[in-house]
Every structure is written in C-alpha cells, then in structure tokens.
Amino acid sequence: MTTRKNIKITGVIPARWQSSRFPGKPVVEILGKPLLHWVIERVRQAEMLDGLLVATDDTRIRECALAVGAAVVMTRSNHPSGTDRIAEAVAETDADAVINIQGDEPLIAPALIDEMAATLTAEDGKWDMVTAAEPISDSSDIVNPDIVKVVFNRYGQALYFSRAVIPFDRDTDSRNERLYWRHIGIYGYTHDCLIRFVATRPCLLEQTEKLEQLRALDMGCRIKVLETQDASVGVDRPEDIKKVEELLRKSVML
Questions:
Q1: CB burial readout 59-88, b (16+ within 10 A) else e
Q2: Could you read off the pLDDT of 227-247 as tens digits, one per residue?
Q3: What is the pTM of this model?
C-alpha cells in the first residue's frame, strides 16, 4: 500500500475517571503499574504515528500520563462520547488523521495501529474511517448483545454494525465463523470526517443500538474494516484485571 507523504497522524487515548462500571480505571495498578501506562507503552511501539496525546478531564489521570512523559490535553467533562473528547483534543493540532485508541486495552497491537494509519493515508484516499474486526469462534458470542457484530462487503467496506445476530443464517444456522465478525472498538478518522461526525446529531439507528459508528454510516462515511487476529482484551470491570494480568505475563515472556 502506497501512502501519501507529509500526512500527519496523531494517536489519541481518551481517558476519563468516572466510569459506571469501573471508576478510576485508567490509574488502577496492573502488574505494578497503572493501566494507562501499559496502553501508552504499547502505542509508542507503533511506527506510523507522528504524535500521541492523552485526552482527559481529570487531573489525576493527567498526572499519571505525565509521569511517563506523555503529552496531555485537558478537555471538557461533559462530552457525550470519547469521539467528542478526541475532536476537542486535536482541534488545535495540525493532524490530518487521528487514531482513537481505547485507554483500557493494554494489549493493543502496535501493528494494527500502523495498518490503520496506512489505510487512512493511502494514495487513493478512498476511506473516511477505518476500524477492525476479528472472526467470532464462540457461538455464544454471536447471540451476545454485548458483542458488536459487523458486516462488510468484498472490499472491506462496512455495511452495518449491530448487537443483533448479523448476518442471519436463515436456512442452516451453521454459525460459520467466517460469517460472523466481532467489531473491535478502535477507530481511525480523517480530520475532515472527525469534524463532520461530531457536528452531526445522533441518528435514530445510533440511538436505538447505542452504537455511534452507525452515525458515521448514516452520514455516508466510507468505513474500512480491517480483518485481524490481534484482538485486544480490555479492562471493563475489576474482575477483568486477573485475566489481563495473565495475558500480559505471557506477552512479556514471549
């Protein structure tokens, strides 16, 4: 893939203190250091980012990020989504594209971040957004509404995202794993797409499924879905810490 030159790509980690499932999550200790530090270290291994920002509204998170030399932008506390927080964070920068990296995924693959950056800066300039998905192998995940499914066409362009079972296998109920893909919540945007997105009101589909990527589809944005096996594991609740620590130990040993 040939990329355009002089395109600046900024990675942004939105992080807030108040979480309904896990308040203070970014600074919780994982194997002796804050969760946010693990995420920053992984993102710094990506080669195509020209800058990295932590976007937060809490001074405790700010101090945590500054402790490892990360740049921090303080944002408003009343943003309805992480995407809105990111838009404020990059408003005064010269970024041409932005990668939204979840602050609770300490195992995010640097190679996936680079692939997303390369997609957004490709010479053909055909994509407004980029995200990722992995095959679903556990049949229970297919019917789990907490697992967001995505359907895309032969060119990798997203057709729809849903908490429901999509596609619906009418005749065989085969649960073929190549049919079902779990959406991974990492996004890349061109700067223009990001600005348009946050200026657009949520559509009915987004309000119904509680999935903001449906707003982008409703706007006509072209979203590339990258197929990957490098799905990260996030820390959503305190009980996730043990599992993440075991995975981190294995990754350090490799």
A1: eebbebbeeeebebbebeeebeebbbbbbb
A2: 998 767 788 888 888 989 998
A3: 0.89
